[in-house]
Amino acid sequence: MGSMKATIERATLLKSLGHVQSVVERRNTIPILSNVLIEAHADGSIKLMATDLDLQVVETIAAQVETPGTITVSAHLLFEIARKLKEGSQVLLSAADSKMLVQSGQSRFNLPTLPRDDFPVIAEGDLGTNFELPAQTLVQIIDRTKFAISTEETRYYLNGIFLHVADDDSAGPVLKAAATDGHRLARVTVPRPDGAEGMPDVIVPRKCVAELRKLLDESDGNVEVSLSASKIRFTLGHAILTSKLIDGTFPDYNRVIPTGNDKLLKIDPKAFMEGVDRVATIASEKTRAVKMAVDHGKVTLSVTSPENGTASEEVPGEYTSDSIEIGFNARYLLDILAQIEGDTVELHLADAAAPTLIREGDKNPALYVLMPMRV
Amino acid sequence: MTWLGHEAAEQAFLDAWNGGRMHHAWLLAGPKGLGKAAFALRAARFLLAQGSAAADAEDRTATTLEGFDDSAASHLIDAGAHPEFKRLERLENEKTGSLARSISVDQVRAASALLTSTTSISRYRTIIVDSADDLEAAGANALLKSLEEPPANTIFFLVSHNSGRLLPTIRSRCRLLNFRAIGDDVMASWLRETMPDAGADAIASLTALAGGAPARALRFRDSDLASVWRDLERLGEQGDADLSITTRLSQSLSLKGANESYEAFLELAPTLLSRAARAADGRGAALLVDRWREASRIASSAIATSPDKALTVFELCRLLTHRSDMAALSNQFAAG
């Protein structure tokens, strides 16, 4: 059984444990997976690692290392202890004889440990593709697409964000991120970063996306992305997130992005969103259907519910084509409108049965497709 | 430890591996106690150690499945923490400690999640179903779906003690590895080797108890079945006019702490009847076969539906009574 001895600042320990323990499943039947791996190195650094078998987070922090070594203890317990220790204190971690002593000031804890060999570590081997993305770009990619990720387990290949590179006629080489649940699609296109050329298409699982997003909250600058056909790794300063990928084929989503929708509605996204939200109040929980009657200069939103009566609202908009009536799931429409930051949103319509293209303009990296509903 | 009776299966598996013709699903079929699940685990240890990040090369000239117990992958398998390994078996109830009646469809679905994500530590995903006989109907269908369209580098091991009862569609997806009961001579000499301190009587009774299954011999080795065994012998030879033996057995075996002996008894009862039936012929044999069938039914439904233990033991004892008389009787009939 390994021995180890190191002293860490309480605040540093707490923050890092906060990061790694969030991947630990709360209800865990496998003891080792409740644990955090603590690896103290002679160079004065400590690695904290946690995993749920699909993804792993490693955080490297500075420490005074007296005896290098590796041990695992309950992530949740150590986090709770660190949380309750005095602010500004130093924490001594000392492992020997299958116990780990946590000592700070007058407090002493003796925690049970499990051997390091039982802890699954995804090797930090070479991943073929390496590139950097600004943290802000990754935030944008995630925030603009993740709402469209499918949660349907039978269509597991839709349970993540699809990342792939392509050569766009107009924009040159690009990196695209797409998510869909079959009812709506979200896609973000950014210039292809150096090093991403020739990368395999990958589907990044929803849980990895969520963990990455949390880590991005605390990071700026660049994120290093490394990937192969079976793994992806994000390096954000002190934290490294490594994840399995979804083993499946993402459908050819380009087929559903309409290119010939010639009826263009330009509208204030805020007013539009508020209107949809208001009339949807009486929509039935099941369908959430809202009807849009688009005419010159205005959109009339309406809902007719057998149980709850009717509602309608007129929102001014720029529109010059033939009038059209089309229905959408209010929830899906609101999800998309919530992504729009500018003053105008474009809805490219064709007919009541055809997918509608929604975007801020052709310069904006994000694009959305929404399937209509029969109303 | 030597693996009695595994030689042919091991060779077939290694031939497939070395030849690069690895089938994605293997059905390990044969009576209980021959080490089918142990074989599956050995094969899993072998597979998960191949092409892992540490040792990137795959050994295609392997001559044995042994030697992987201490591999990095095996540590993770034993800790239940290998990301590419799942074992499906009846779950233990945390409160009562008893086993669930079947392997649920939820368990199968949870294991299938392994198939929809890429691998991270080992190259092969390995799923052991121990046993496929325990799958509830919906679970069997869910498994069938995975067997029909398995992703690359995925190997299933299905343990079955009664493979004739499996869905034919599951059977047909699997390559069959037959495990056969070990003959009494081979068993006895193996037991002498494994337990050098055991006396000749002990070896003989263990051989009888094993009924061709090494695991059964090993299981009975430590449990205190000596008195049960003596009672059953008497039951068979002298009968039990005042029901004293039957009563004693139903009381002692239905105690809370006697679960292991009880389960052993459930296996033992049909075995003893089938031995008696084989020793007999004519009308006695037919009667004993009927009794054996009844005992098997009671024993297997005792596991599936857990009725009152004392009553189950009582019923089985009644069936076991006078079995040697019946065997003898039938011989007289045959002679007359």
Write up this protein.
The complex is a heterodimer of chains A (375) and B (336). With 375 residues, chain A is α+β, with helices and mostly antiparallel strands. Chain A has helices at residues 10-21, 75-84, 135-145, 206-216, 269-279, 330-337, and strands at 4-9, 35-41, 45-51, 55-62, 64-67, 69-74, 90-96, 99-104, 107-112, 129-134, 160-168, 172-180, 184-191, 202-205, 222-227, 231-236, 239-244, 263-267, 289-295, 298-305, 309-318, 324-329, 345-349, 356-359, 366-370. In chain A, the strands form three sheets. Chain A has a twelve-stranded antiparallel beta sheet with strand order 14-11-12-13-25-24-23-18-21-20-19-22. Chain A has an eight-stranded antiparallel beta sheet with strand order 6-2-3-4-17-16-15-10. A five-stranded antiparallel beta sheet of chain A has the order 5-1-7-8-9. Chain B is an alpha/beta fold and 336 residues long. In chain B, strands 2-3-4-1-5 form a five-stranded parallel beta sheet, sandwiched between helices. The interface between A and B is medium-sized, with 31 and 21 residues. Chain B: Keywords: Nucleotidyltransferase, Transferase. Chain B: Pfam families: DNA_pol3_delta2. Chain B: One of its GO terms (cellular component) is DNA polymerase III complex.
Look at the structure and give the mean pLDDT of chain A.
94
Strand pairing plus helix content of chain B: what structural class? alpha/beta
Tell me the CATH topology of the largest domain in chain B: Rossmann fold
Tell me, briefly, the overall form of chain A: elongated
Query: Total number of helical segments of chain B?
Result: 15
Main sheet of chain B? 5 strands, parallel
| Backbone shape of chain B | globular
Order of the strands making up the biggest sheet of chain A: 14-11-12-13-25-24-23-18-21-20-19-22
Beta-strand segment tally of chain A: 25
Strand content of chain B: 5-15%
Keywords (chain B): Nucleotidyltransferase, Transferase
EC number (chain B): 2.7.7.7
GO molecular function (chain B): DNA-directed DNA polymerase activity
Enzyme class (chain B): transferase
